[in-house]
Design brief:
172 residues, alpha+beta, 2 helices
């Protein structure tokens, strides 16, 4: 190969390496942009808002994709079931967490279940049952313990049976 051809091939290879090192970008009419990072750095896809705020980032890690989603409001809708399978699940909300169901809500822990509140803990239902399947029930108060009911039974072996289920009460 002559010297001129070698310079042209070297220049072409340098251009190809430069192109591969730059992220690929696609701009939408609404100002959003999709970026695909170069494979030499990290396999990553990003969606960026017109103001430069990152909305979605998908990184292809050795153990699978890592997904980050950010936005003013995020909504997930499913016509059927929505499942999360993971080792640990955590939700942090700076103001409030609301969980609503048109049916039953089931909290099941194979270990301990801890409810802690800096303020009041209120529980309201048609009927309530506190049961220890093994062991004692402890009620501790810094001040008085009040039991107020039509009748207060102590050491009564009568088995508690609710007269209506929660779903029956909600229907009425």
């Amino acid at each position: 190969m002559n010297q001129s051809m070698t310079k042209n091939v070297d220049a072409l290879l340098a251009d190809v390496e430069h192109i591969q090192a730059e992220p690929q970008r696609h701009h939408f009419d609404n100002g959003f942009m999709v970026e695909l990072d170069a494979p030499q750095r990290r396999d990553e896809i990003r969606i960026v808002a017109p103001n430069g705020r990152l909305c979605l980032k998908i990184q292809m890690e050795p153990d699978g994709p890592r997904i980050e989603v950010a936005g003013e409001d995020l909504h997930v809708r499913a016509q059927g079931d929505l499942h999360f399978d993971c080792a640990r699940f955590e939700v942090n909300a700076s103001a409030e967490v609301a969980l609503r169901s048109g049916g039953d809500v089931i909290h099941e822990a194979r270990g301990d279940l801890n409810l802690n509140a800096a303020g009041h803990l209120k529980s309201t239902a048609f009927a309530q049952e506190i049961r220890a399947t093994r062991g004692d029930v402890h009620v501790l108060a810094n001040d008085d313990v009040r039991l107020d009911g039509e009748t207060v039974n102590l050491n009564n072996p009568k088995v508690y049976r609710p007269s209506a289920s929660a779903s029956d009460v909600l229907k009425s």
